[in-house]
Amino acid sequence: MKTIKNTLWLSLIILCVTACDSLLDFEPLDNFGGTNFWQKKEQVESYIVGLHSQVREKAWNFYKFGEERGGWLKYGTSSSDIDMEDLQIKTQALTEQNANTESWDGFYDPIMQINELIYKLENEVTFLSDADKNYFLGQAYGLRAFMYFHLYRTYGGVPVVTEPKVVNGVNNPKDLYVARSTPANTLAFIKSDVDKSVTCFAGDNFTIQAKREVWGKAASYMLQAEIYLWGAKVSTGDYTANPKDLDVADKALDAVLGCSSYSLTQPYDKLFLFENKGNDEMIWTLSYGENEETNFYYKFTYNNMFYSRFYDVEGNLLVDPLDLRNSGVQRHEYKYDLFALYDDADVRKRTNFLDFYDTSDPLDVTVKGVIFRKFLGMINAGGKRLFVDAIPVYRVADAVLMKAEIANAKGGDPSAYINEVRRRAYGDTYPRFVNKSRLENEYAIYVERLKEFAGEGKSWYDARRMYGSGDKPLVYDLGLLDEAKEAYKLLWPVDINVLNNDPEVEQTPGYAGT
């Protein structure tokens, strides 16, 4: 496979770490492929920092795969008509010729580096204590399972590559081609990796490092819960959902929620502030610092030149109301319908969104929209707005609402978990959820997750995993896909360049020739 073969060569290149204000600033101590590397603990730590940096570079890809197809993004923006980014994704119009990905979206780059780390730790490194080796292996297996799980939810079966072949002297292109594994084998591999990660962390007491931006024991438990919850509910190709997986997911979440280092006590309107990084709700984040590259949330903010003609709900003209201090191009906008789902008493409504209108007269509104404001970063000493928030991957509210989903799937009452999240959002006068039918409960959990995790890369994955009518994926009830004609679109097509360059890779069923 050409794309994976090229990635394998990257295992010979030094990992570039360009961060400055976080643990990811740590500079590599040596050339990772050189003979002087893999000689001491600090070098292994440096290598793992580099891995985290590579994983963080995929932050937009995680969002793209997990949320853009969720049905809550507009096809364009209200404040400007000049951008239509990712139109095929938002409109479910992906094809073989327009897959909106390239070379598996580069996911095999960090995977190959992780493969080298696992190989070295298990076969060559002798200078580490057993405790240190297990800790590093726990991170490596967890990160690899995390990357592959995104690929699995996106493509189903994918090429499963576990060895750093080029580093070990394999350079015949034919020996580097890798066909797609079946969905069942792919998921079995991912489960094995995350289970190994949890086992490796057995002796660790939930160590928390560097503003919760480093993979640790709790992240592995959260990933294990997410993987097994998916395995319990979602059939793909030759894999049939196994409800027994719910027990593994449930146990993993209990481990996280039973740890005193994590809680749901942070006020929602303070939860994502730059100065509140590393708060005790966060389990694992992709964190950015002042002198680093920015994250992608600037794409959701307004262009001052176009936006200054709009009004707030009280009829006041809006002039840079979020103090953005820039005039960039807005690439993405959530639908007003999502904003309208929130009650006014729900603090999440205007923590997540700023609503705007094209007139000061509420009876004469023809255009209304929302700006996503959840991750606005900070203003530096030079007066510039920097989008350098910590992006949550796993946090406590996710654990609580997954518990709700598991309880409902087992035929139990999820209301206590839903109400725990609502209490934080509304205060003591929150609207109590009362147990209903399994389908009604499932939809309530979906909506609660939608409100809670807006912009965090979860809505498409949620719609695929959660039950709709007849225990079929919720995507059909939401009108995202037509089951009779578009069931194959639950997965993504492989881009045409991969197919043209690799004789072993076959197209995702349903997309050939599209």
Structure, described:
With 514 residues, the protein is mainly alpha-helical. 40% of the residues lie in helices and 5% in strands. It has helices at residues 2-9, 41-56, 59-67, 87-90, 108-123, 130-155, 173-176, 183-200, 217-233, 245-257, 304-307, 336-341, 348-352, 396-409, 415-426, 438-452, 459-465, 474-477, 483-486, 496-501; strands spanning 282-286, 353-357, 368-372, 378-379, 385-386, 391-395. A two-stranded antiparallel sheet has the order 1-6. It has a two-stranded antiparallel ribbon with strand order 2-3. The protein has a two-stranded antiparallel sheet with strand order 4-5.
Could you provide a short overview of the structure?
With 514 residues, the chain is mostly helical. It has 20 helices and 6 strands.
Secondary-structure-based class equals mainly alpha
What portion of residues belong to β-strands? under 5%
* SSE pattern: HHHHHHHHHHEHHHEEEEEHHHHHHH
Strand tally, please? 6
- So what's the overall shape? globular
**What is the subunit organization of this protein?**
single chain
User: Helicity level, as a percent range?
Assistant: 40-55%
Radius of gyration: 23 Å
Across the major sheet, the strand order is 1-6
| Number of helical regions | 20
Largest sheet at a glance?
2 strands, antiparallel
Poorly predicted ranges: 1-31
N-to-C span: 22 Å
- Overall mean pLDDT stands at 90
